[in-house]
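Lab notebook, bench 4. The sequencing result for the construct came back, and we need a structural model before the next group meeting so we can plan mutations. Quick request posted to the team channel:

Model the 3D structure of this chain.
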Amino acid sequence: MPLAIRAARTGKPLDVFGTDWPTPDGTCVRDYVHVEDLAAAHVAAVERLRAGHAGGALNLGTGRGTSVKEVIAAVERASGLPVPWNAAPRRPGDPPRLVAGPGRAGDVLGWRPSYTSIDETVRTAWAWHSRR
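Done. Here's the predicted structure in token form:
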């Protein structure tokens, strides 16, 4: 997401690694979780630890996948600018789809993401980058 924002702001093309993945639009699908949601989950985890509970591994995410092309389109909607991009070869080891299952984080921490749409997440990221 930050690289797509930078491409919109600078006009320097973003490399999209693979456009032939077995996904709806051919680009990788990832779970883009808002930084404020990540921070809230970490605070909840620290509070749980301070209360004497055991730690453990939890997946943090929205549980929804968004493709690279969908992120590009969301940045274009938020910014009103085109996001130039180049098709680049796939990177070895990249999975076509990687989406978190945040259910256990909800059960253990009572945590649920507040930002559930890519447009909300990109809008706030665009605003933050624009203030820098």
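The chain has one domain: 2-131.
Will bring this to the meeting.
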